[in-house]
């Protein structure tokens, strides 16, 4: 007997599992069962799996019988004339939805030319084998599959226009790219109106050549003059939000300009951008450390001294300041109230982000890299017709990655720029390489896309012809100004006396054992002293018993808990974290003994 499972639960048995599965599929195509019901006979377990539950991913395919698709040209003509709709084809059983389980038994053809009597289904379009974002990438059927996965992730990180109402939104860390363009080489997915309103990337001239060594591996060289004209310019928005919180006892925060008698008062210069209401005015040009929203708060914790001074309520300065390393212009200020009736202030700072060395860029074929150099236009290579590339890409990134889509997009972009049209780069169904080569040759160029170029510094002709064309490049959200971190002297932690952790707290970078080995290997061992002295402390140690003693620096006298006042005491340098370890060992009854030797 064959077991029958419905949504994973055993619901019955049958003598003919294959026949039951075929009968259910037939009834579904005839409209007797819901179109989202899926059936599969599993031969390895001799069971029929029926799935009707929600949450399953299903996709539409055309039904094939005897090697012929049920959707005919007459159906397509009726669809184009709006005489029938999509649902009519589904009800007629010509199109059906398959989930991941039933698709295991389906034999799906990519095109009508590939159909054989063994096929059970056919794709509506070859583009449907890709996801929404993968279908935006041109010519990816010519690239390595792993590189296409990388390309999809790269496109997801692109800076574009994520929402048309970004000016009135308060999104965290939002980025907007200025002057975005529809790609010259595009897929059919770009004809969607929604995508045309949210384009990303710009069409630029790219030369594939190793130049000056600043575009080694994945690095790229960008024309500095193009950047100065506004290429890849973007804006970064940082929101700051403050609420007048109410506390137990009737106290609350107050958004205002703090008085000088408030604990933690900064300086008059820090509050120079605040209006009378304690909020920075729009269009103020602020820098890191400047106060954006002034606020005073009641004391959170009552100390032992203040217990006897109940009448005194000293306010604490708790203003919101511009983040470290981030400046900009106050873009907009919103005042509202929360559901509890508390005053709520939202302020947004806009920062202009020009391209700088270290910023990340990527193409739609997964070839991403950081800027290695911004080169003056006078030093950039140029073609015999005077075309100067905006970006120089290394040719050594192509053979290992096998991203032929990169080269085809360059070729197609060149054709589109010369012909003044968009090039169809839809996978499987787009324009062929041969047609692009012929059209490029008809415009007076070499059909393989290479041109004679000249060195911009020396003026000499390059010995080899350089592959050059137009393509879409995307600025990715990984800005070097968001990641750079530095510190000289700064705050330390209360317990360990080591530098604080984190960029926002002016923290340092932790140097571990392996980093120490790198310093030694590169001959920079002397720099380790300042690295490992961050929590240096001198402790008095009894050289007789090895215990930590007590030492009076002014009188230069010491005392040991075991050996008394006459004990020989020496001051040794250790890290504060080591002293904490000794104290913790003593707290659990372990006797840590320090053997003090002679100073070398």
Poorly predicted parts: 302-312
**Helix residue percentage:** 10-25%
Identify the overall geometry. extended
- Please provide the count of β strands: 34
Q: What structural class do helix, strand and pairing data support?
A: alpha+beta
Rounded to the nearest angstrom, the distance between the terminal CA atoms is: 88 Å
The CATH architecture name of the largest domain reads Beta Barrel
Radius of gyration from CA coordinates: 35 Å
What's the level 1 CATH class of the largest domain?
Mainly Beta
Number of domains: 5
Spatial ordering of strands, largest sheet: 12-26-13-24-23-30
Strand residues, percent: 25-35%
CATH superfamily of the largest domain: DNA-directed RNA polymerase, subunit 2, domain 6
Q: Can you give the mean pLDDT? A: 91
Report on the biggest sheet: 6 strands, mixed, barrel
CATH topology of the largest domain: Dna-directed Rna Polymerase Ii 140kd Polypeptide, Chain: B, Domain 6
Number of helices: 13
């Amino acid at each position: 007997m064959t077991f029958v499972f419905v949504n994973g639960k055993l619901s019955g048995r049958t003598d003919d599992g294959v026949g039951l599965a075929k009968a259910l599929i037939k009834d579904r195509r005839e409209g007797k069962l819901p179109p989202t019901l899926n059936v599969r006979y599993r031969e390895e377990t001799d069971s029929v799996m029926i799935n009707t539950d929600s949450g399953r991913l299903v996709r539409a395919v055309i039904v094939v019988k005897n090697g012929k698709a049920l959707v005919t040209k007459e159906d397509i003509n009726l669809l184009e004339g709006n005489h029938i709709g999509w649902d009519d084809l589904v009800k007629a059983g010509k199109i059906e939805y398959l989930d991941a389980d039933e698709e295991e038994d389906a034999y799906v053809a990519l095109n009508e030319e590939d159909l054989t009597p063994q096929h059970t289904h056919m794709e509506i379009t070859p583009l449907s084998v890709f996801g929404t974002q993968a279908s935006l990438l041109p010519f990816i059927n010519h690239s390595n599959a792993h590189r296409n996965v990388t390309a999809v992730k790269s496109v997801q990180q692109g800076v574009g226009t994520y929402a048309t109402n970004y000016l009135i939104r308060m999104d965290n860390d939002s980025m907007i790219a200025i002057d975005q363009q529809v790609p010259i080489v595009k897929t059919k997915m770009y004809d969607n109106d929604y995508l045309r309103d949210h384009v990303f990337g710009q069409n630029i001239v790219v030369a594939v050549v190793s130049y000056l060594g600043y575009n080694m591996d994945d690095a790229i060289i960008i024309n500095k003059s193009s950047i100065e004209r506004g290429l890849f310019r973007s804006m970064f928005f940082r929101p700051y939000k403050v609420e007048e919180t109410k506390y137990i006892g009737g106290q609350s925060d107050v958004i205002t300009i703090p008085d000088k008698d408030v604990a933690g008062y900064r300086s008059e210069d820090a509050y120079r951008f605040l209006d009378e209401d304690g909020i920075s005015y729009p269009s103020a040009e602020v820098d890191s450390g400047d106060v954006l929203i002034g606020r005073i708060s009641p004391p959170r914790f009552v100390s032992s001294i203040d217990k006897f001074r109940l009448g005194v309520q000293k306010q604490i300065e708790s203003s919101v300041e511009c983040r470290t390393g981030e400046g900009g212009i106050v873009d907009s200020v919103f005042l509202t109230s929360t559901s509890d009736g508390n005053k709520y202030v939202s302020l947004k700072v806009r920062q202009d982000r020009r391209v700088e060395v270290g910023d990340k860029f990527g193409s739609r074929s997964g070839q991403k890299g950081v800027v290695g150099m911004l080169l003056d236009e006078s030093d950039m290579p140029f073609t015999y017709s005077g075309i100067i590339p905006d970006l120089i890409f290394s040719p050594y990134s192509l053979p290992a990655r096998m991203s032929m889509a990169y080269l085809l997009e360059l070729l197609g972009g060149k054709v589109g720029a010369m012909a003044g049209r968009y090039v169809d780069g839809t996978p499987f169904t787009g324009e062929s390489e041969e047609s692009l080569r012929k059209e490029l040759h008809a415009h007076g160029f070499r059909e393989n896309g290479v041109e004679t170029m000249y060195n911009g510094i020396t003026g000499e002709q390059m010995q080899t012809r350089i592959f050059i064309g137009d393509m879409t490049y995307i600025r990715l959200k990984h800005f070097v100004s968001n990641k750079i971190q530095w510190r000289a002297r700064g705050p330390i932690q209360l317990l360990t006396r080591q530098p604080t952790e984190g960029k926002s707290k002016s923290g340092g970078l932790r140097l571990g054992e392996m980093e120490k080995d790198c310093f030694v290997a590169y001959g920079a061992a002397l720099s380790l002293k300042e690295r490992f002295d961050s929590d240096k402390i001198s402790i008095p140690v009894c050289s007789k018993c090895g215990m930590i003693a007590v030492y009076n620096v002014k009188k230069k006298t010491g005392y040991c808990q075991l050996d008394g006042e006459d004990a020989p005491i020496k001051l040794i340098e250790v890290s504060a974290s080591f002293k904490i370890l000794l104290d913790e060992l003593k707290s659990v009854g372990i006797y840590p003994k320090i053997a003090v030797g002679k100073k070398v």
